[in-house]
Amino acid sequence: MISASHITYYHLCHRKLWIHHRGLRQEDNSAAVGAGKLLGRQSYQRRAARWRELDLGFLRIDHFDPRRKLVREVKYSPKLEHAHLAQVQYYLYVLEQAGVTGVKGLIEYPRQKRQCPVELTDELRATIGGWEAEIERITAQPTCPPIVAKTYCGQCAYRDFCFI
Fold first, then answer.
1. Which domains are seen in the chain, by residue range?
2. Which of these, 58, 110, 113, 108, lies nearest to 88 by C-alpha position?
3. 65: enclosing H helix or E strand
4. How many CA atoms lie less than 13 Å away from 56 in the CB half-sphere?
5. How many angstroms separate the CA atoms of 101 and 162, rounded?
6. Residue of 27, 1, 49, 17 whose CA lies nearest to 157
7. Which band of pLDDT confidence, cut at 50, 70 and 90, is reported for residue 119?
8. What is the helix (H) or strand (E) element at residue 70, kind and residue range?
9. pTM of the prediction?
10. Contact (CB, 8 A) for 11 and 86
């Protein structure tokens, strides 16, 4: 099954996606990932009562408000916003496929006091199917995709697989 991590990594780095898919998890060793998780736990604590965690087996949504039909994702920085958007769009897509309609998303960047609303459009529904097909193709390859240096490689939890 395709997880939110697959979607995020597909939008960031195909090499990272391929390595992650093979069970090599580096996120627990990353200070940046740890800081983001801490921020997510500590932000907006007064709202905690109405938010629920949804575990769909292959996908876990940390914050879902069933009354407002809202998925909330807290991120440390908007630096990788395109991947954050794709992650939340995928959450909305999966929920819709499971019969939960009318769900909207919200990405929050507390350090920047910024919010980004997310909706699922007909165009995105078609695009997400393409993402899934490409992820299947990339992860089925027998060899790791080549290194494509990006501006954020220095902070990547998987950088040792590329630059050492």
1. 4-163 (3.90.320.10)
2. 108
3. strand 60-65
4. 21
5. 41
6. 27
7. very high
8. strand 70-74
9. 0.85
10. yes
